[in-house]
Amino acid sequence: MAARSKPEGGNGGRPSEFALIEDLFAPLAAGAPGAYGLKDDAALFSPSPDHETVLTVDAMVAGVHFLPDDPPETVARKLLRVNLSDLAAKGATPRGYLLVTAWRAETSVDWMRGFAAGLMEDQNLFGISLWGGDTVTTTGPMTLSLTAIGEVAAGQMIRRGGARPGDDIYVTGTVGDAALGLSVLRGALDMPDTADAAHLVRRYREPEPRTAFGPKLCGVAHAALDVSDGLMADLGHICEVSGTGARINMESVPLSRAARAALARDPRLVEAVAGGGDDYEILFAAPPDRASKIGAIAAESGISATRIGTMTEQSDGVSAIDGAGNKIALKQLGYRHF
Length: 338
What we know:
Layout: H1 17-25, E1 51-61, H2 72-89, E2 93-104, H3 109-126, E3 129-138, E4 143-153, E5 168-172, H4 177-185, H5 194-205, E6 223-226, H6 231-242, E7 244-249, H7 257-265, H8 270-275, E8 282-286, H9 291-301, E9 305-313, E10 318-321
Parallel strand pairs: 2-3, 7-10
Antiparallel strand pairs: 1-4, 2-4, 5-8, 5-9, 6-8, 7-9
Helix pairs in contact: 2-3, 4-5, 5-7
InterPro entries: PurM-like_C_dom, PurM-like_C_sf, PurM-like_N, PurM-like_N_sf, ThiL-like
Function: Catalyzes the ATP-dependent phosphorylation of thiamine-monophosphate (TMP) to form thiamine-pyrophosphate (TPP), the active form of vitamin B1.
EC number: 2.7.4.16
């Protein structure tokens, strides 16, 4: 995001790239020595001794990953948080990030200012800063991309692969809120309780990366990822890489009060809970003898972790069962990007 000369004109009176960076983004780099105030072409980062660098990137496209009328502050926070969630699921501690913004010509400076304010709020919350990036204009939909950089003790990153038959399956927090929140925003789900509706919408717009929980799973979990595509789909990703199967007890899946209220009104919403995605909770597999350690991590971090199933042999596939052990047929297993 280093400032550099570009042709002027055709920007509808918008400040130059240099002015935007100086006004909106340079303050986000304050206090990061390797960012050089966003006045160089690259940033410098040295991980702590005996640590390795972990990198992850996610993009958000208007109309696909956020709604046109979503407040810019929440769009910024979601963009940052989904990447921090990836780091947390790998056991990494976040250190900084790179940002690419492709604005439409009609994107107002006020919208950009709100976006930058959302980033600043979360930087203060998670203790990180902007290190660089780029800002451009596009004739397509607004597109935002963020690369998060973290670090983990050497050899301790938790991968998708590594789960073993007999491992317990856990998930942090609650599942299904975000998909139900999107349905509320689209007018497809009516929630009489306004507090429940607000909770679901907030969980869609502002996921909660489990940065206090994930790093403590190093040496405890055999495999982990964050739930972005949907509980069943992401469990399938672990199974595919690990060469295992899995069985989930849907009655054990943790739900918020708002999600339970929605399911009570329409039991068919179990499809959204199992496959809606955007939860950004940590889904992980660990051996049964580490249950007490996982309970201690949950208590220490203030984040719940619920055992919801078991890893099985690969030939078993991935299945969901009810409390009586009967298989549940799910049509929607998760979000597909293509």
